């Protein structure tokens, strides 16, 4: 059985050779509406100029205090072990220097518990220290 077409010139029976673009336009309008609704949700509406900062290599001064935290979580004032965070505060008070002039450098082991480092930073803040820095190693260059 073969398909045959009437060879008549009747417009109703003629084969349609045009592409129907109505479904394409419908899909594009739906996508446009979706994008118009979701773009404001993705971006923030408050314009803020964020600070720009570059890392600067600083030389350690002799008056800087270095607090080290090892992998186990023990804190050290230079080379002497701190028994508690209260001892850290008392050592800072014993320096009899203004707290805003002190610069504390924290050397935390890469595998140390963040809780211990956070407790040291909290103890320093409670003592009034405003200048706290972290000593790191530069990344390995390939």
Structural overview:
This protein has 142 residues and is of the alpha/beta class. The protein is 32% helix and 14% strand. The chain has 3 helices and 5 strands; from the N terminus they run αβββαβαβ. The N and C termini lie far apart (73 Å). The model is unreliable at 44-51 (pLDDT under 50).
- The main sheet orders its strands as 3-2-1-4-5
Note the run of SSEs as H and E: HEEEHEHE
Distance between the termini: 73 Å
So what's the overall shape? Answer: rod-shaped
Percent range for β-strand residues: 5-15%
The number of distinct helices, counting runs of at least 4 residues, comes to 3
Cα-atom radius of gyration: 35 Å
Looking at the overall shape, the CATH architecture of the domain at 65-134 is 2-Layer Sandwich
Roughly what percent helix? 25-40%
Q: Which regions are unreliable across 5 or more consecutive residues at pLDDT < 50?
A: 44-51
Largest sheet: 5 strands, mixed
At CATH level 3, the topology of the domain at 65-134 is: Nucleotidyltransferase, domain 5
Number of strands: 5
Describe the structure using short key phrases.
3 helices, Nucleotidyltransferase, domain 5, alpha/beta, single chain, 5 strands, 142 residues, five-stranded mixed sheet
Topology:
Blueprint: H1 22-42, E1 65-69, E2 75-77, E3 80-81, H2 85-94, E4 103-108, H3 114-127, E5 131-134
Parallel strand pairs: 1-4, 4-5
Antiparallel strand pairs: 1-2, 2-3
């Amino acid at each position: 059985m073969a398909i045959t077409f009437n060879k008549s010139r009747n417009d109703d029976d003629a084969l349609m050779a045009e592409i129907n673009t109505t479904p394409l336009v419908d899909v594009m309008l739906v996508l446009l509406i979706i994008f118009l609704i979701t773009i404001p949700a993705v971006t923030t509406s408050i314009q803020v100029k964020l600070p720009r900062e570059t890392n600067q290599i600083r030389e350690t001064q002799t008056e800087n205090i270095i607090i080290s935290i090892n992998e186990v979580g023990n804190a050290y004032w230079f080379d002497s072990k701190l028994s508690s965070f209260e001892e850290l505060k008392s050592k800072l008070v014993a320096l009899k220097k203004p707290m805003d002039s002190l610069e504390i450098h924290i050397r935390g082991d890469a595998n140390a518990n963040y809780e211990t480092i956070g407790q040291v930073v909290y103890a320093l803040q409670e003592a009034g220290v405003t200048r706290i820095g972290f000593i790191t190693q530069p990344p390995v260059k390939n």
